[in-house]
Write a structure and sequence with these properties.
The chain is α+β, with helices and mostly antiparallel strands and 265 residues long. It has two domains: 9-71, Arc Repressor Mutant, subunit A; 78-256, 3-Layer(aba) Sandwich (Chorismate lyase), CATH 3.40.1410.10. Helix content is 23%, strand content 36%. The chain has seven helices and 13 strands. It has helices at residues 9-22, 34-41, 45-57, 129-135, 166-169, 187-193, 212-218; strands at 61-64, 68-71, 78-82, 93-94, 97-101, 108-113, 116-126, 142-152, 155-165, 200-209, 225-235, 238-248, 252-256. It has a six-stranded antiparallel sheet, sandwiched between helices. The chain has a three-stranded mixed sheet with strand order 4-3-13, with no helix packed on it. The chain has a two-stranded antiparallel ribbon with strand order 1-2. Helix 1 (9-22) crosses helix 3 and helix 2 crosses helix 3. The chain is elongated. The N and C termini lie far apart (63 Å). The relative contact order is 0.12.
Amino acid sequence: MGTTTEPVYLRVLEDLRSRIRSGLLAPGARVPSRNAIITNYGVGETAAKHALAVLIAEGLIEARPGSGCYVRRAPAAGYLEHDRPQFPGSPFGVQETVAAAGDHAGGAGPSVPRRLTWEHQTEQVTAPPPAAARLGLALGAVAIMTRYLMRADGEPVQLATSYEPADLTAGTPVALPEQGPLAGRGVIERMRSIGVAVDDVTEEVSVRPALLAEANALAVRAGAVVFAVERVHYCAARAVETAEVVVPADRFRLRYRFPVAPVGS
Protein backbone atom coordinates (compact mmCIF):
# COMPACT_ATOMS: atom_id res chain seq x y z
CA MET A 1 0.00 0.00 0.00
CA GLY A 2 1.42 3.42 -0.96
CA THR A 3 2.19 6.14 1.52
CA THR A 4 1.69 9.87 1.31
CA THR A 5 3.59 12.75 2.82
CA GLU A 6 0.68 15.22 2.48
CA PRO A 7 -0.25 16.92 5.76
CA VAL A 8 -3.26 15.27 7.40
CA TYR A 9 -5.17 18.55 7.64
CA LEU A 10 -5.36 18.80 3.81
CA ARG A 11 -7.92 15.99 3.69
CA VAL A 12 -10.17 17.90 6.09
CA LEU A 13 -9.52 21.22 4.38
CA GLU A 14 -10.31 19.97 0.87
CA ASP A 15 -13.52 18.28 1.97
CA LEU A 16 -14.85 21.29 3.88
CA ARG A 17 -13.80 23.65 1.09
CA SER A 18 -15.61 21.48 -1.45
CA ARG A 19 -18.77 21.38 0.65
CA ILE A 20 -18.75 25.17 0.99
CA ARG A 21 -18.14 25.89 -2.69
CA SER A 22 -20.76 23.35 -3.80
CA GLY A 23 -23.37 24.86 -1.49
CA LEU A 24 -23.74 21.83 0.77
CA LEU A 25 -22.63 24.20 3.51
CA ALA A 26 -24.59 27.31 2.58
CA PRO A 27 -23.72 30.90 3.57
CA GLY A 28 -24.50 31.34 7.24
CA ALA A 29 -24.35 27.60 7.99
CA ARG A 30 -22.37 26.49 11.01
CA VAL A 31 -19.15 24.66 10.19
CA PRO A 32 -18.32 21.47 12.13
CA SER A 33 -16.56 22.31 15.35
CA ARG A 34 -13.00 21.31 16.10
CA ASN A 35 -14.20 18.37 18.19
CA ALA A 36 -16.63 17.29 15.45
CA ILE A 37 -13.83 17.38 12.88
CA ILE A 38 -11.62 15.26 15.13
CA THR A 39 -14.39 12.69 15.48
CA ASN A 40 -15.73 12.70 11.92
CA TYR A 41 -12.38 12.73 10.09
CA GLY A 42 -10.29 10.75 12.55
CA VAL A 43 -7.61 13.45 12.84
CA GLY A 44 -5.87 15.14 15.72
CA GLU A 45 -6.58 18.52 17.28
CA THR A 46 -3.70 20.21 15.43
CA ALA A 47 -5.02 19.11 12.02
CA ALA A 48 -8.56 20.23 12.86
CA LYS A 49 -7.36 23.61 14.11
CA HIS A 50 -5.13 24.13 11.06
CA ALA A 51 -7.92 23.29 8.58
CA LEU A 52 -10.27 25.82 10.17
CA ALA A 53 -7.51 28.46 10.26
CA VAL A 54 -6.87 28.06 6.52
CA LEU A 55 -10.58 28.37 5.71
CA ILE A 56 -10.71 31.57 7.75
CA ALA A 57 -7.61 32.91 5.98
CA GLU A 58 -9.21 32.10 2.60
CA GLY A 59 -12.29 34.08 3.56
CA LEU A 60 -14.62 31.10 3.25
CA ILE A 61 -15.63 31.00 6.92
CA GLU A 62 -15.66 33.41 9.84
CA ALA A 63 -15.19 32.74 13.53
CA ARG A 64 -17.74 34.09 16.00
CA PRO A 65 -16.36 34.16 19.55
CA GLY A 66 -18.28 31.82 21.83
CA SER A 67 -20.38 30.44 18.98
CA GLY A 68 -18.12 28.70 16.47
CA CYS A 69 -17.31 29.08 12.78
CA TYR A 70 -19.84 29.87 10.06
CA VAL A 71 -19.76 29.97 6.26
CA ARG A 72 -19.09 33.56 5.28
CA ARG A 73 -21.69 35.45 3.26
CA ALA A 74 -19.45 36.76 0.52
CA PRO A 75 -20.66 39.81 -1.41
CA ALA A 76 -21.57 39.36 -5.06
CA ALA A 77 -18.53 40.06 -7.20
CA GLY A 78 -18.61 43.01 -9.58
CA TYR A 79 -16.43 43.60 -12.62
CA LEU A 80 -13.59 46.01 -13.21
CA GLU A 81 -13.25 46.56 -16.94
CA HIS A 82 -9.81 46.73 -18.54
CA ASP A 83 -10.76 49.46 -20.97
CA ARG A 84 -8.99 52.55 -19.68
CA PRO A 85 -5.24 52.30 -20.30
CA GLN A 86 -4.90 56.07 -19.82
CA PHE A 87 -6.97 56.30 -16.65
CA PRO A 88 -4.93 57.69 -13.72
CA GLY A 89 -3.28 55.10 -11.54
CA SER A 90 -5.01 52.07 -13.00
CA PRO A 91 -6.13 50.59 -16.32
CA PHE A 92 -9.31 49.28 -14.69
CA GLY A 93 -12.61 51.14 -14.66
CA VAL A 94 -15.57 50.32 -12.43
CA GLN A 95 -19.13 50.20 -13.77
CA GLU A 96 -20.25 53.83 -13.62
CA THR A 97 -24.01 53.26 -13.34
CA VAL A 98 -26.13 50.97 -11.18
CA ALA A 99 -29.81 50.12 -11.24
CA ALA A 100 -31.81 52.07 -8.70
CA ALA A 101 -34.45 50.32 -6.63
CA GLY A 102 -37.97 51.18 -7.70
CA ASP A 103 -41.37 49.97 -8.77
CA HIS A 104 -40.37 49.10 -12.30
CA ALA A 105 -40.68 45.63 -13.75
CA GLY A 106 -38.18 43.27 -12.24
CA GLY A 107 -37.80 45.48 -9.19
CA ALA A 108 -35.08 47.65 -10.69
CA GLY A 109 -35.38 51.32 -11.39
CA PRO A 110 -33.52 53.49 -13.89
CA SER A 111 -29.74 53.54 -13.89
CA VAL A 112 -28.14 56.16 -11.68
CA PRO A 113 -24.53 57.31 -11.86
CA ARG A 114 -22.07 56.05 -9.29
CA ARG A 115 -19.94 58.65 -7.57
CA LEU A 116 -16.35 57.81 -8.49
CA THR A 117 -13.54 59.50 -6.62
CA TRP A 118 -9.75 59.23 -6.63
CA GLU A 119 -7.57 60.08 -3.68
CA HIS A 120 -3.90 60.58 -4.54
CA GLN A 121 -0.62 61.55 -2.91
CA THR A 122 2.69 62.14 -4.68
CA GLU A 123 6.16 62.23 -3.16
CA GLN A 124 9.80 61.73 -4.12
CA VAL A 125 11.21 58.51 -2.68
CA THR A 126 14.01 56.01 -3.03
CA ALA A 127 12.56 53.43 -5.38
CA PRO A 128 11.90 50.18 -3.47
CA PRO A 129 13.86 47.24 -4.91
CA PRO A 130 10.94 45.60 -6.79
CA ALA A 131 9.98 48.87 -8.49
CA ALA A 132 13.63 49.72 -9.18
CA ALA A 133 14.12 46.33 -10.83
CA ARG A 134 11.08 46.76 -13.08
CA LEU A 135 12.23 50.27 -14.05
CA GLY A 136 15.83 49.18 -14.59
CA LEU A 137 17.08 51.63 -11.95
CA ALA A 138 20.06 51.20 -9.69
CA LEU A 139 19.34 50.52 -6.03
CA GLY A 140 18.99 53.83 -4.25
CA ALA A 141 17.75 55.68 -7.35
CA VAL A 142 15.07 58.31 -6.84
CA ALA A 143 11.54 57.84 -8.18
CA ILE A 144 8.32 59.84 -8.16
CA MET A 145 5.76 57.75 -6.28
CA THR A 146 2.01 58.38 -6.48
CA ARG A 147 -0.50 56.41 -4.45
CA TYR A 148 -4.10 56.26 -5.66
CA LEU A 149 -7.21 55.01 -3.90
CA MET A 150 -10.33 54.69 -6.03
CA ARG A 151 -13.77 54.71 -4.43
CA ALA A 152 -17.21 54.06 -5.92
CA ASP A 153 -20.04 55.57 -3.86
CA GLY A 154 -17.56 55.80 -1.00
CA GLU A 155 -16.57 52.11 -1.15
CA PRO A 156 -12.84 51.43 -1.70
CA VAL A 157 -12.41 49.68 -5.05
CA GLN A 158 -8.72 49.57 -5.86
CA LEU A 159 -5.38 50.76 -4.59
CA ALA A 160 -2.54 51.63 -6.94
CA THR A 161 1.06 52.71 -6.35
CA SER A 162 2.87 54.15 -9.35
CA TYR A 163 6.59 54.89 -9.78
CA GLU A 164 8.33 56.97 -12.46
CA PRO A 165 12.08 57.64 -12.75
CA ALA A 166 12.62 61.09 -11.26
CA ASP A 167 15.20 62.03 -13.89
CA LEU A 168 12.79 61.28 -16.74
CA THR A 169 10.24 63.98 -16.02
CA ALA A 170 12.31 66.34 -13.84
CA GLY A 171 11.92 69.95 -14.94
CA THR A 172 8.98 69.19 -17.25
CA PRO A 173 5.33 70.29 -16.90
CA VAL A 174 4.36 66.67 -16.08
CA ALA A 175 6.88 66.06 -13.31
CA LEU A 176 3.99 65.53 -10.88
CA PRO A 177 1.27 63.20 -12.28
CA GLU A 178 -1.62 65.01 -10.61
CA GLN A 179 -0.45 68.59 -11.12
CA GLY A 180 0.17 70.76 -14.15
CA PRO A 181 -1.64 71.02 -17.52
CA LEU A 182 -2.06 67.25 -17.95
CA ALA A 183 -3.02 66.39 -14.38
CA GLY A 184 -4.83 63.08 -14.25
CA ARG A 185 -4.54 62.41 -17.99
CA GLY A 186 -2.69 59.10 -17.62
CA VAL A 187 0.82 57.85 -18.30
CA ILE A 188 0.60 57.54 -22.09
CA GLU A 189 -0.63 61.07 -22.74
CA ARG A 190 1.65 62.68 -20.16
CA MET A 191 4.74 60.94 -21.53
CA ARG A 192 3.80 61.76 -25.13
CA SER A 193 3.69 65.46 -24.23
CA ILE A 194 7.42 65.38 -23.36
CA GLY A 195 8.45 63.34 -26.38
CA VAL A 196 8.35 59.90 -24.74
CA ALA A 197 6.25 57.59 -26.92
CA VAL A 198 4.94 54.62 -24.95
CA ASP A 199 4.91 51.67 -27.35
CA ASP A 200 4.32 48.71 -25.05
CA VAL A 201 2.48 47.99 -21.80
CA THR A 202 2.83 44.73 -19.89
CA GLU A 203 0.83 43.43 -16.95
CA GLU A 204 1.37 40.46 -14.68
CA VAL A 205 -1.58 39.34 -12.55
CA SER A 206 -1.08 37.35 -9.37
CA VAL A 207 -3.08 36.53 -6.25
CA ARG A 208 -1.73 37.05 -2.74
CA PRO A 209 -2.79 38.01 0.81
CA ALA A 210 -3.36 41.71 1.44
CA LEU A 211 -0.70 43.53 3.42
CA LEU A 212 -1.92 45.30 6.55
CA ALA A 213 -1.77 48.80 5.00
CA GLU A 214 -3.59 47.55 1.88
CA ALA A 215 -6.27 45.86 3.97
CA ASN A 216 -6.86 49.05 5.94
CA ALA A 217 -7.12 51.16 2.78
CA LEU A 218 -9.46 48.73 1.01
CA ALA A 219 -11.60 48.01 4.08
CA VAL A 220 -10.92 44.26 4.01
CA ARG A 221 -9.56 42.01 6.71
CA ALA A 222 -5.80 41.61 7.02
CA GLY A 223 -4.65 38.67 4.92
CA ALA A 224 -7.70 38.76 2.62
CA VAL A 225 -6.99 37.55 -0.90
CA VAL A 226 -6.33 40.31 -3.44
CA PHE A 227 -5.44 40.57 -7.11
CA ALA A 228 -2.05 42.22 -7.55
CA VAL A 229 -1.44 43.59 -11.05
CA GLU A 230 2.13 44.66 -11.84
CA ARG A 231 2.13 47.03 -14.81
CA VAL A 232 5.03 48.52 -16.77
CA HIS A 233 4.92 51.18 -19.52
CA TYR A 234 7.80 51.03 -22.01
CA CYS A 235 9.26 53.39 -24.57
CA ALA A 236 11.70 51.70 -26.97
CA ALA A 237 12.33 48.95 -24.38
CA ARG A 238 12.98 51.46 -21.59
CA ALA A 239 10.59 51.24 -18.63
CA VAL A 240 9.16 54.71 -17.99
CA GLU A 241 6.53 53.86 -15.37
CA THR A 242 5.56 50.92 -13.22
CA ALA A 243 2.66 50.39 -10.86
CA GLU A 244 1.08 47.76 -8.67
CA VAL A 245 -2.72 47.75 -8.65
CA VAL A 246 -4.39 45.92 -5.75
CA VAL A 247 -8.04 44.82 -5.93
CA PRO A 248 -10.07 42.78 -3.37
CA ALA A 249 -10.50 39.36 -5.02
CA ASP A 250 -13.73 38.50 -3.21
CA ARG A 251 -15.50 41.67 -4.40
CA PHE A 252 -14.31 42.04 -7.97
CA ARG A 253 -13.28 40.20 -11.10
CA LEU A 254 -10.89 41.71 -13.63
CA ARG A 255 -12.38 41.60 -17.11
CA TYR A 256 -10.23 42.00 -20.22
CA ARG A 257 -11.59 42.63 -23.71
CA PHE A 258 -9.50 42.11 -26.85
CA PRO A 259 -10.79 43.66 -30.06
CA VAL A 260 -10.27 41.49 -33.13
CA ALA A 261 -9.60 43.27 -36.42
CA PRO A 262 -11.80 42.13 -39.32
CA VAL A 263 -10.14 39.88 -41.87
CA GLY A 264 -8.50 41.92 -44.61
CA SER A 265 -8.35 45.15 -42.61
